[in-house]
Each structure stands twice: as C-alpha cells, then as structure tokens.
Design brief:
The protein is α/β, with parallel strands linked by helices and 133 residues long. The protein has helices at 17-28, 86-95; strands at 10-14, 31-36, 42-48, 51-57, 77-81, 102-109, 112-120, 126-132. Pfam families: Glyoxalase (PF00903).
C-alpha cells in the first residue's frame, strides 16, 4: 500500500505574483526565490522552514505551467503555524495593515487544539495563522 508522509510544496494561483510575494514576505516572513524553469520561464516561490509555495500566475497556460484543471485565484484556505502567541499575531498583522477576519479562536489542528487568527491575502485566500499551546 502506498502512503505519503509530507507535503513537498504547494502551488497557489495568484493574480499578481509580485503583490502576493510582497504580502507573504511582509506579513508571514517568508523568503522569495526567483528561478528559471526548465522551459526558461521565471518562477517565484516563497519558502519558510522546510516548505515552499510556488506562486503561479492564474493566466499562465497549461503548456507553460501544468496545473489543475480549473485554476483560479482566491480559492485556497491555508493554515500556517507560528511559535508566536495569538496576541503577537494580532499585533503584527495589525501593524501590517491586514484586517483580521476572525480570531483569535480555538480550532482543531492536525495535532490537537490550536489558536487561530484568520486573515486574507491579496487574492482573498483565507489564511489561518495558528499556534499550538
């Protein structure tokens, strides 16, 4: 039987790669990497810890960037973990001028209860910033 034990990377469809990269860098402290693909196109990734998110322009063709059948910006719901306290998350996102949609609230994480603050990225994706107690 086949099993998996980790996610290597995610691809996030975005309207504006530069705006999204700036937001994920400023608000979530991710690092931007730009590199040429095998076909010679510039690709932008955001890295954090041992993880990576590729930022795919929503208008890229299947020929240039093979992806899901119906790519659209703003349809993702992602949860990121932080060692920061919920109060520190609230303070930081406020300083970044990001509106809090919900939280801090207790939710169910993969390892048990987490305390989450919900915001939206430039495309409207729901971004959950959470910490385990």
């Amino acid at each position: 039987m086949l099993t998996v034990d980790a996610i290597d990377h995610l691809v996030l469809n975005v309207r504006d790669v530069g705006a999204s990269a700036a937001w994920y860098g400023r608000v979530l402290g991710m690092d931007r990497t730009d590199a040429r693909s095998a076909s010679g196109e510039m690709r932008t990734s955001m890295t954090f810890g041992q993880n990576k998110i590729n930022l795919r322009p929503v208008d890229a063709s299947q020929e240039t960037w093979f992806t899901g059948r119906m790519p659209c910006a703003g349809s993702a719901d992602l949860c990121f973990l932080t060692p920061a306290t919920p109060d520190a998350v609230v303070a930081h996102v406020g300083q970044c001028g990001v509106l809090i949609e919900l939280g801090p609230v207790t939710k169910s994480g993969a390892r048990g209860p987490i305390c989450s603050v919900y915001v939206r990225d430039p495309d409207g994706n729901l971004i959950e910033i959470s910490s385990y107690r």
